[in-house]
Amino acid sequence: MTALLTTSVGSFPKPEYLTRARTKAAKGELSSDALRDLEQKATSEWIRFQEEIGIDILVDGEQYRGDMATYFAENLGGTEISGLVRSYGNRYYKKPIVVGELRRRGPISVDWFSFAQSQTDRPVKGMITGPYTMMDWSFDEYYGSRTDACLAFAKLLHEEAVALEAAGAKYVQVDEPALSTRFDELPLLVKAVGIVTKGLRARTVLHTCYGNYNEIFDYFNKLPVDQLDLEMSNSGLDLLERFKREPLKKEIAFGVVDVHSHVIEPEALIRERIEKALTIFQPDKLFIDPDCGLKTRSVDEARDKLRNMVAATHAVRQAHGLT
Amino acid sequence: MVKTTVVGSYPRIGDAFEEQALRRGLARLDRGEITEADLRAVERDTVKTVLKEQNEAGIDLVTDGQISWYDSQSHIAGKLASIEINGLVRYFDTNTYYRQPVVRGAVSRKGPLIVDEWKFAQGSSKALVKAVLTGPVTLASLSLDKHYGNKKALAGDLSSAIGEEVGDLVKAGASHIQIDEPILTQRPADLSLVSESLDRIRGHKAKATLTLFTFFGDVARIYQDLQDVPADILGLDLVQGAATWPVLAKHGSSKPLVLGVIDARNTKEEDPVAVATKVSQLKSAVDLKTSYLSPSNGLEFLPRDRARRKLRILHEAARVVGVAA
Ligand SMILES: [Zn+2]
User: In the prediction, which pLDDT does A239 show?
Assistant: First the structure.
């Protein structure tokens, strides 16, 4: 029995040489080929690191992405990219604008998946920014309806999911950080994610984070994926009590380290969190990962957090005689 | 003729290098390369730009764009006694975040909240500058209350604090005060709390005009009761809150309105003539001469260039309403 497999949510921090290169490329002082070489170098480094510390299911680290919604929109027809909009504090991002009928011009993330998978024998997850989040984070000048725009994204992202599977992806993850934005739209989200995952043989995962889980709890078992990937350490572990009463009928990837804190959680603390999770979930249905993408941490912080996470998981496996 | 106004916030930066002084300033303050005083100077330059852009678009009643506000909650709550500021929480259904106020004891006003900001803005503007404050009931709802244990009591003390601020704003010369209560579009049952709160604030406003603004949704279910709140003007989001339209058209309004008809959350540009035609349908139900057209909520959810275009559309729509009347 495989038990307590370790994985990651998606993004890793970019090394300094890549951050500098991106700034240069934005100013036109570096060619896109030269930038791509460095993105590949950073991706290979992250793949090697994940192998070294013994992570079971890898991610490509998203070294080639700026914003997760903008990256997908840039590679679709029918979109433009807006000027800067504030998120909070001094953080700004560019939003997609839907200006015409959405079209998939070709693969979006498949080449990066293939590159990452070519570097390792372990499975690498295929990563898709979900249709609801794409809709919610875009301006819409064309569809005039949140439902229509969301379902249009869903159809194209299904094509992307099928292409990832054809390229060899054993896991396809749909990221929906906007999931808990409007509770009255949860049925729309369920429908849209269902379109994306329809007919896939790959194991499907849905990641969300920082929402009011109590409000969305009733939808967990309705989400059309095999596995839910939830931020658990930051929200406190209160949710566990609820899972005890109302069992999850899916696999769970259980976030055990906080991605917004500089503090490196000690191995013992992470072990405790995993032990708590084991009181509720079967070990073969329980996956261990960070709360969310680690891209806002420094490279060293991200590495230390992942190292402790894997060490803690291995210790728990050993204590329970799991392989 | 119908006048024009804005709701409050405005994009702090644009996409051109020279429009990003505030972003650079904050980054340099973080790195310790400039002082707080240096940053205040950059903020004030940005406020002047924001006032100039509203002025060039021909807006009648403007704001300072809330340029120095970290967010709509912590900027006000953070200056009150017994409130600490915590981590980030999603702001309604927007993809933006506010730092959550945590109430640790009895809340009171220690000193001015936005009086200096308002004075500077009015001193730099030809048009009248509206003073905008986050409403006590929204503040109470979005805070983490570790002291009162009931929203009514917390909202009561917050209302006293906001009331004192309104008194000082009026003494400083403000003639237009706006209280934002977006929570009413999410929790219509809070209307009685908002009414009590405005009752307390109203005592401090002297001859100033007091506006209650609701946004991020409709107020259709409470529209008729809303007519009775102790405010002089009602501000309505008629885009995300389009469901308020039919009720408004049917029952009219005994108070002047701010009609939030320009979508401040989408870049899609309205046809000013179509907007004007729709607004003109209200002419027998609402006194358009004392009312205003506005964006549906603060403009900071749009890129700066799009916000500028929305202001021009707003002004043009108001002009067309005027010609028709
Ligand atoms: Zn996340």
Answer: 84
